[in-house]
Design brief:
It is globular, with a radius of gyration of 24 Å. The chain contains 8 helices and 25 strands. It is α+β, with helices and mostly antiparallel strands. The N and C termini lie far apart (about 60 Å). Strands 7, 8, 9, 11, 12, 13, 15 and 16 form an 8-stranded antiparallel sheet that branches. A 6-stranded mixed sheet has the order 2-3-1-4-5-6, sandwiched between helices. Helix 6 links the parallel strand 4 and strand 5.
């Protein structure tokens, strides 16, 4: 398979390893042009292959279209192509000489808000599209609020279809001002507005000749240059234990290692560590990385820690530096997005999965549901239905070591699971959201799983 444009020298493994990685998600209302933007980005950055483009051209011609519909590069489900909308999250991987990218093209319809939560939960940047003819609408505000709740550090406002408003600067300026004011109120730390036409390619990869009044970066230029810090050395060091390695062979008769992927921070040989939730302490005697001993390891490396003492540790435990151990608690207060069709109700018995640990839990209270249109709070709704965002209070059967989501998006997150069939019910973020709920009185304990 060959490139769609003039062949360029492929990046070597060493070059790719030297580039940074940016995870970003696209969002916006239905028909704002998200999939077209992604297709244009992939096409103009030479990140698609000839046979892929030929397949898109055949489908487009079969529909009577004169030019390839680049949205088909991401809308892979049959229902998506038939309806012309995005339903599921479409992930794409591509690279330029300056950076590697993992892109999540998320649905725009309110019915699939939960899919946006999935796509943006690990994103460093969110691209929110707005149709220049419609301006900031309800779904635009909803996506900005979700990005703020998920602590996405960078937001790009892409004002699309500028060709349909004669590339008027005043139209772009008004939309950018309104969106920036709203997103800033939510606490989004950085907002960049870019006028584009995804269909025509204006300001996507190449600068537009139709908008000489705009002097900022193109979408790709901003994606390549936005500062993204993956240096988590100063974050709270956390290692969720996935597996205890005991070979018990003649070569390694006494080997006992605790394997897992470092969720955040850095571990050093010789430092004191605490095992949570038990609270037992020891020191790091060694670190094995891909079978090789090292003195230091950091996120997101998968390693095996060896301790000086024989401590009772199993899957689900959390290894942390003793000087920086999070508190353990059985009472969890969090902001959640409900993703299942079955409602989440007060008294609901669930499984709470945090890192590699899963415990029984009960939903003790739902203090509020967030109305994303105006950020108002509906007190004590009693239940959350699919796509609802609200505050919950949960009591767990066992203590959990929890960080605030504002401090760590990895160890401050959890999911609620239906114990009957394993369905994921809810995605949770420990601590306060950007809109704190009203205080509520404690309710009486429920029967059943009463912890």
């Amino acid at each position: 398979m060959t490139s769609t444009t003039e062949p360029t020298e492929p990046l070597s493994v060493e070059q790719l390893s030297a580039t940074t990685l940016l995870r970003f998600a696209t969002a916006g209302s239905v028909d704002d042009g998200k999939s077209t933007l992604v297709g244009r980005l992939l096409h103009d950055s030479k990140s698609i292959l000839t046979d892929q483009l030929e397949a898109v051209e055949r489908v487009s011609a079969g529909r009577g279209q004169d030019t390839p519909d680049l949205a088909l590069l991401t809308d892979g489900l049959r229902a998506e192509r038939e309806q012309g909308i995005t339903i599921d999250v479409a992930y794409r991987y591509f690279a330029t000489a300056r950076r590697r990218f993992i892109l999540a093209d998320t649905p725009g319809h309110v019915q699939y808000t939960r899919n946006m939560v999935t796509g943006a939960s690990t994103a460093d940047l969110a691209v929110v599209l707005v149709d220049a003819r419609n301006g900031v609408i309800e779904q635009t505000r909803r996506h900005a609020a979700v990005a703020a709740l998920l602590r996405v550090p960078h937001v790009v406002l892409a004002v699309n279809k500028m060709d349909l408003v004669a590339y008027e600067e005043t139209v772009f300026a008004a939309i950018a001002e309104e969106f920036t004011a709203y997103a800033s109120e939510l606490g989004v730390p950085e907002i960049t507005a870019i006028p584009i036409s995804a269909l025509a390619g204006d300001n996507v990869v190449e600068p537009s000749a139709n908008m000489d009044w705009y002097g900022g970066p193109t979408v790709l230029e901003h994606l390549e240059t936005v500062p993204v810090s993956h240096d988590l050395a100063h974050c709270h060091a956390r290692l969720p234990v996935q597996y205890v390695i005991r070979p018990q062979t003649a070569e390694h008769p006494d080997y006992r290692g605790y394997a897992g992927q470092i969720a955040a921070g850095t571990f050093h040989v010789g430092e004191s560590v605490t095992v949570l939730p038990s609270g037992r302490t020891s020191k790091v005697a060694g670190i094995d990385l891909l079978g090789t001993p090292v003195d230091v390891a950091w996120t997101p490396q998968s390693v095996t820690l060896l301790l000086e003492d024989d401590v009772d540790i199993s899957r689900g435990d959390l290894l942390v530096p003793s000087k920086d151990a999070p508190p353990t608690t059985q009472d969890v207060e969090a902001t959640v997005c409900h993703v299942a069709d079955e409602p989440l109700t007060v008294g609901h018995r669930v499984l709470l999965k945090h890192g590699t640990r899963t415990v029984k839990a009960i939903v003790k209270d739902i203090p509020s549901r967030l109305t994303l249109d105006d950020l108002s709070l509906h007190p004590h709704p009693g239940r959350l239905v699919a796509n609802d965002i609200g505050r919950v209070k949960i009591r767990t059967a066992e203590p959990l070591p929890l960080d605030a989501y504002a401090d760590s998006r990895r160890t401050g997150a959890f999911i609620l699971i239906d114990p009957a069939d394993g369905t994921t019910l809810t995605a949770g973020m420990v601590g306060e959201s950007f809109a704190a709920p009203q205080p509520v009185a404690a309710d009486a304990d429920d029967d059943g799983w009463d912890f």
